[in-house]
Write a structure and sequence with these properties.
- Helix content is 14%, strand content 52%.
- By secondary structure, the chain is mainly beta.
Length: 293
Amino acid sequence: MKNYIFVAFWLWTFISFGQTEQDSIRSQRQQLDSLFLEEIENAGPLKKPKVLHAEPLYIDLIRDLGARKGEKEWNVAMGMQDKRRFDEFHALIEYEWAPVDRLGFEVELPFSFYSFRNGSRETQAPSNRLESLKLASQFTFLVSEKRNVSLALGYIHEFELVDLNRLGKEQAWRGNIFNPFLVAAKRWGSNYHTLIYTGPRIIKEFDHKSTVPFQINLNFHYMVTGTRNFIGLEVNQEIHGGEVLSTLRPQMRLGLAENLMVGIVSAIPLRQPNAGLGSFLRIIYEPGFRAIH
């Protein structure tokens, strides 16, 4: 009987200690999250409040939702997509900044290059090109601290350019892409983030009829306690001519320094026989960003 009592006491002590330790760790995490969110969202009495949201890595935002005057960011990215008969390589460089509170601007140069596989002919793939000169703006018109919600409207204008092998032989500017969009984001508690980015892309090339695909990009992320690191899923959908093309993009973002982060993305096309797996890497540098914690 004494042995049973001893075992029961030992088990009760072990469980109680484990529960106390878990409660302590949970409390520390909650405190760290509270301090981190307070630092990011309420940076001083002279600055407007903002809600921290996880920003998607593939189709990213023009600037943080609720951006503050003086914020700026450089992005360099590269990626690869399997197109079955050839490989498509992407690269971009972009600069974004906020001249006033809650208004962001961006300039981007996206490139595309193609590698032919054995037995392929060049006519099966597009030519290498600087895709466009992309100019964009975004205004956050609602920041609700109580509900952890932000809403923004934006516009992207792309001046489409001809293939690199045609530069100097014909007019460099071959058309326009008009892309108004809406962003709605909500943070659930301290760690869980959802965001929708949606709008039409009106593609008008000279001497061609306009096409209007519609984009719906859904995002789900979990942000690690007390950091800007996250893991998540970006779902990119394009609706055109009654057809829906969807791509899943599992992703993660890691901080290498206070003002330097790297984003890693995979691409999983759904029901797209001419597209295979892909990958994407984004390097994010924020001059002047300093974390207190």
